[in-house]
Write a structure and sequence with these properties.
This protein is α/β, with parallel strands linked by helices and 521 residues long. Helix content is 39%, strand content 21%. It contains 18 helices and 20 strands. The mean pLDDT is 95. The protein binds 5-amino-5-deoxy-1-O-phosphono-D-mannitol. 5-amino-5-deoxy-1-O-phosphono-D-mannitol binds next to helix 8.
Length: 521
């Protein structure tokens, strides 16, 4: 990027033009010469063709939009109209910033917020002509349309590293605040946990579909343990990219919760739209206010983690878990599955979490030698049981995306059904263990891995650590109830991945091949 055609039109594009091959063949037959193999370049040539045919910017954009299929947010500059940018979107996000004497375009408000807090969000199939003096927005058929001018929160502004070496390190340290603020967002004016929905609507919830990708998907998997055990409401967790394509049977579920830090993951957005089309009511659990998922969901549950810049999700994950746990408690209470005393007891425990996470943050120095050893491994396994199983998946994802060490997470009890064959001398096995109802069984699974040569790196609470006398390294956090242990144990798992990546010298905040927000399929 940019892609330039005929030295006249330059474009930048986020998304995929699905029918670019046929467009390219048509244009090549007309004499257009392409300089790349990308789908994006056809946009530049389509605009040249439209301008050559005498169309003005608005008509040219309508003609281009009528021809392309796929997801896109693009911007066009032409030497014919030097005071103007043309922008359009479908599915991929795009925000216009309105300044005092300039206008701006960006993929979201965060990218613009050091320039202006006044933002216009385009809807799908909108296009806009952007000049320094203002923006004119149109629907795909050329009909002018007014889109609201939104004033975004100052906290959505760009942030610096605050003295830390990496954004990720800073964001790990921001977790006590992220959790406390997210808890505040889930507390009503009477000081009780709330699901931010009417009691009537909550009472009507019969089954919940949790939709998400990546780390957010692992948060939903942990939440399933909470919602089913506390509220006795059936839950399915769906990988968003699979959901709408597999023709799911939806009759038993009437609520879909789309969980997304960015609120812009295309897979999650599309899955939420599919759930809505199937008649479900929708909740968007997002960290970015005014994101597309937030704007389209019937109800918003906010995480208040603040801007997350590092590609690896950290504070948004523990904030998502906090909100999901609060939601589970509020649902359970309304459904009559737990009494006030139990709800209050859990609430008090969550209030104590920021302090406990703060203590877990002191583990950095102690974990450096462990990370140093891990950094020379070719492969690592992560094991957990119960709600710590999805945390094992998340721990493995953190390690592989940051340090490029191959890592797999397994339910400890599954080891004997196949994965134990992977255990060889000295393979690191990161074990997530808490003093809960499955601790003894989980510990036995770990002992078996150790007996076959696995080097156990134990991440556990203090009580569980006492049970394990075979670990090579023991990282402990304070004891908490089993409901909260996935949130607290997430912190050392993040620190381990972070320190290992630093040891390996990888690009911690921007790992190879990854984007912070995945706005294409
Ligand atoms: O913004 P989202 O939560 O929708 O992003 C989903 C995933 O792309 C994301 O969680 C990704 O897996 C993490 N950044 C990895 O650390």
């Amino acid at each position: 990027h940019p892609h330039v055609a005929s030295k006249r039109v330059s474009i930048v594009h986020n998304g995929i033009i699905e029918n670019y091959r046929s467009i390219r063949h048509r244009l090549e037959a007309l004499g257009h010469r392409f300089s790349s193999d990308t789908d994006s370049e056809v946009l530049a040539h389509l605009f040249v063709e439209a301008f050559d045919a005498g169309m003005d910017p608005s008509a040219a954009t309508q003609s281009v939009l009528a021809e392309i299929d796929g997801a896109y947010a693009f911007a066009v500059m032409s030497t014919d109209y030097p005071d103007m940018l043309i922008v359009a979107r479908n599915a991929s996000p795009l925000a216009l910033g309105i300044g005092d004497d300039a206008c701006y375009i960006g993929s979201d408000a965060t990218a613009l917020s050091h320039l202006t807090r006044k933002v216009v969000y385009l809807k799908d199939n909108d296009y806009a002509l952007v000049r320094a003096t203002g923006v004119a927005v149109y629907q795909a058929d050329g009909e002018p349309v007014n889109r609201e001018h939104v004033i975004v929160a100052a906290s959505q502004g760009l942030v610096d590293k605050g003295g830390y070496r990496h954004y990720m390190e800073k964001e790990i340290h921001e977790q006590p605040d992220a959790i406390a603020h997210s808890l505040a967002a889930m507390t009503d004016k009477n000081g009780c946990l709330t699901a931010r929905m009417s009691e009537k609507k909550l009472r009507e919830v019969e089954g919940i579909v949790l939709l998400a990708a990546g780390t957010s998907h692992y948060a939903t998997q942990i939440a399933r343990y909470w919602i089913e055990s506390l509220a006795n409401v059936p839950v399915v967790c769906e990988v968003a990219s699979e959901y709408r394509y597999r023709q799911p049977a939806t009759a038993s579920y009437n609520l879909a919760i789309a969980v997304s830090q960015s609120g812009e993951s295309l897979d999650t957005l599309m899955a939420m739209r599919h759930a809505a089309d199937c008649g479900m009511s929708t909740i968007g659990l997002v960290n970015v206010p005014n994101s597309t998922i937030a704007r389209e969901a019937n109800t918003v549950l906010p995480t208040r983690a603040g801007p997350e810049i590092g590609v690896a999700s950290t504070k948004s994950f523990t904030a998502q878990l906090t909100v999901l746990l609060c939601f589970a408690v509020a649902l359970a209470r309304v459904k009559g599955q737990i009494d006030v005393a139990r709800a209050n007891a859990i609430h008090v425990e969550i209030q104590g979490l920021p302090g406990l996470v703060g203590r877990a943050l002191c583990l950095f120095d102690e974990m450096r030698p462990v990370a140093h050893k891990l950094s020379s491994a070719k492969s690592a396994l992560y094991l957990g049981r119960g709600a710590l199983y999805p945390l094992a998946l998340e721990g493995a994802l953190k390690l592989k995306e940051l340090s490029y060490i191959h890592a797999e997470g397994f339910a400890s009890g599954e080891m004997k059904h196949g994965p134990i064959a992977l255990i060889e001398d000295d393979i690191p096995v990161v074990a997530l263990l808490a003093a809960d109802s499955v601790m003894t069984k989980a510990s036995n699974n770990l002992r078996e891995a150790n007996a076959r040569g696995g080097k156990i790196i134990l991440i556990s609470d203090s009580d569980a650590a006492v049970e394990v006398d075979y670990a090579s390294a023991v990282i402990t956090v304070p004891n908490v109830s089993s409901l909260l242990s996935p949130i607290l144990l997430a912190v050392p798992a993040q620190i381990l991945a972070y320190l290992t990546a630093v040891e390996k010298g990888t690009d911690v905040d921007q790992p190879r091949n990854l984007a912070k927000s995945v706005t294409v399929e």
